[in-house]
Specification:
single chain, 587 residues, alpha+beta, nine-stranded antiparallel sheet
Length: 587
């Protein structure tokens, strides 16, 4: 009896084990959940369903989800080139945009580990003597300031990229000749800075003794086996990637073709990295796994330690260049945009989950900022409590682009953040309000009484009105010439000459912004500034000459048209002076 009982028990156990072994592996995998609460086994249906929901406005997209040990999901969707029916595949290369900056911060940490860079030392010790041309404060600018985007630099876009390969200059030449003004005290104001990150890459060049693209290839890409990645401005550090990039076309967020959208980014360490999805995922997974091929574990731990918090909170704002995000999980990472592509890299170290996505659309937001909710949960947007007018700290404060900065920096804030705030950063909005500012990720919005914005808008509106009136006056003069009823009054010809001069400062500025910023930037910027000076002098001489003519004729208030012309000439001079269109030495 005992032997039969034992046999029955053994048979039953064997049957149970056999049944268990036969169960699909997905049942066990399904027990694992993502930070969002979704099951890992649902990743395929979730992401593919999301693609179908937004396919009508999409171009191409590639994405992957992984942990530190393995890939959980990858997918390729849509077209690299709709017009030629070229699909997005595992061989397609897409630009990282600003995610490229993570290679800079990894490089800095590698050199810090080697004792070659001190994160808290003044960076002038790594730069040529008298390097900074427009430094306002004597406070040290440290590598930590560059990582936290609070070194105090204003925005600069002059010569950042070019559509002509022949216009590319070395990183050293660019960073030496194109320098923004320091407008904020180091450590006090956060203003996302491409130039500051480029400066950090230049320091890597000087400390390592090799061009940055070579350093990145030898110390990041090659150790990780990233054979399909390029980062140099012309992608020449990987000719196969450069050739493959020619297949990719850029599209608008609505899915329409964005012709001629490819540009060479001269500040290449902060935006030019281009690779396959596999290489992009490899880099991200190495960061999540704290891969020893990059640096030691303790260096990773230091890099991931919060370096900047939201004021008065325990919420992480930055971790040595990595941005804290606002999903249900504690996530760090970086997003990126070029004129052709968008990307996002996110790491949840607590749950050991990572996510990368790439799309060949400028300013794409569905896949880059909404799809991560499927993995990390809904965003936790913190609202501000008061209505106020804010000026963006990330803006142009001096020189030819001050006008653009004055108009671009105006941000009305309400309890529900307006779309412009989210669009500015390409990240979910987390807004932390302090007494004098609103903090958003890597940018402060400085509370303002509206005086600066009002002055900018007022001058611009007056200029536009003046241009309209000048055009009308010139048309009237032209008609009179045709019918031979033109006046021989010297003041009439004076008004005509002034009507020709008044519109030119603003028209020249528009031409500069539209056509010249990307071609021979230093040369054209200085030439335009000098022309603005000449125009200003001619306007002043015209004003003086008009006053003398009107005084000699002793007319009553010299006539309404004369006074109006005089007024708009003064406005034109005021615009040149107020918006610093004459400052060729700031280029």
């Amino acid at each position: 009896m005992k032997s039969q009982l034992i046999r029955r028990i053994c048979c039953t156990a064997a049957a149970v084990l056999t049944m268990a072994a036969a169960l699909p592996l997905q049942i066990f995998a399904a027990e694992k959940t993502l930070p969002s609460g979704k099951k890992e086994s649902e990743l395929s249906s979730l992401i593919e369903g999301f693609w179908k929901d937004h396919e009508s406005t999409a171009a191409g997209m590639a994405t992957a989800v992984f942990n530190s040990k393995k890939e959980l999901y990858f997918g390729y969707f849509g077209s690299a080139n709709k017009e030629k029916n070229i699909p997005i595949t595992e061989d397609s290369v897409i630009e990282w945009g600003s995610v490229s900056k993570l290679t800079v911060w990894v490089s800095v940490m590698q050199l810090k580990e080697q004792g070659k860079i001190d994160l808290n030392a003044d960076v002038t010790q790594y730069l040529p003597q008298n390097f900074f041309k427009h430094r306002k404060y004597d406070d040290p600018i440290t590598m930590m300031n560059l990582m936290n985007h609070n070194a105090g630099f204003e925005e600069t876009a002059i010569g950042m990229d070019t559509s002509t390969e022949a216009n590319i200059v070395s990183l050293e030449e660019y960073i030496t000749n194109i320098q923004p003004c320091q407008v904020w005290k180091p450590g006090e104001t956060v203003a996302y800075s491409n130039w500051g990150a480029t400066l950090a890459a230049y320091i890597v060049e000087r400390v390592s003794g090799m061009p940055y693209y070579q350093y990145a290839q030898e110390n990041i890409f090659k150790p990780l086996g990233m054979e399909h990645t390029a980062i140099n401005a012309d992608l020449s550090d990987n000719p196969a990637v450069k050739e493959k990039r020619k297949e990719l076309q850029g599209y608008l967020p609505t899915g329409q073709l964005f012709p001629n959208s490819f540009t060479y980014i001269i500040m290449y360490p902060v935006g030019m990295c281009t690779s396959t999805l596999t290489d992009f995922e490899t880099f991200a997974q190495a960061l999540l796994a704290e891969d020893s091929r990059l640096m030691k574990k303790q260096t990773f731990e230091e890099m991931y330690t919060p370096s900047l918090m939201y004021t008065g909170t325990e919420d992480v704002r930055l971790c040595h260049g990595f941005m804290g995000t606002v999903y249900k999980a504690n996530v760090i990472g970086h997003g990126g945009n070029t004129q052709s592509c968008s990307s996002y890299l996110l790491l949840d170290r607590d749950d050991d989950i990572g996510f990368v996505v790439m799309a060949n659309q400028y300013g794409e937001s569905k896949f880059n900022t909404e799809m991560p909710n499927l993995i990390f949960g809904e965003t936790k947007e913190k609202k501000v409590n008061s209505d106020c007018l804010c000026m963006s700290a990330r803006t142009f404060k001096h020189g030819m682009l001050k006008l653009l900065g004055s108009l671009q920096g105006i941000t009305p804030m309400v309890q529900n953040p307006p779309a412009i705030v989210k669009d500015m950063l390409h990240y979910p909005s987390y807004m932390n309000e302090t007494s004098d500012r609103v903090e958003i990720s890597v940018m402060d919005l400085i509370k303002s009484n509206g005086a600066e914005a009002g002055a900018a808008v007022g001058i611009l509106l007056l200029m536009l009105l003046g241009i309209l009136i000048c055009v009308i006056c010139l048309l009237v003069k032209f008609i009179k010439l045709i019918i031979r009823k033109h006046s021989r009054n010297p003041l009439s010809w004076w008004r005509t000459r002034m009507s020709l001069l008044i519109p030119l400062p603003l028209i020249l500025w528009f031409v500069y912004v539209q056509f010249f910023m990307k071609a021979q930037p230093v040369f054209w910027a200085k030439i335009v500034c000098i022309i603005e000076i000449v125009l200003g002098l001619l306007l002043v001489l015209g004003i003086i000459g008009g006053i003398r003519r009107m005084h000699r004729r002793e007319e009553k208030i010299c006539g309404f048209r004369n006074v109006l012309t005089m007024f708009f000439a003064i406005v034109a001079v005021a615009m040149i002076v107020y918006f610093e269109m004459y400052t060729f030495w700031l280029v």
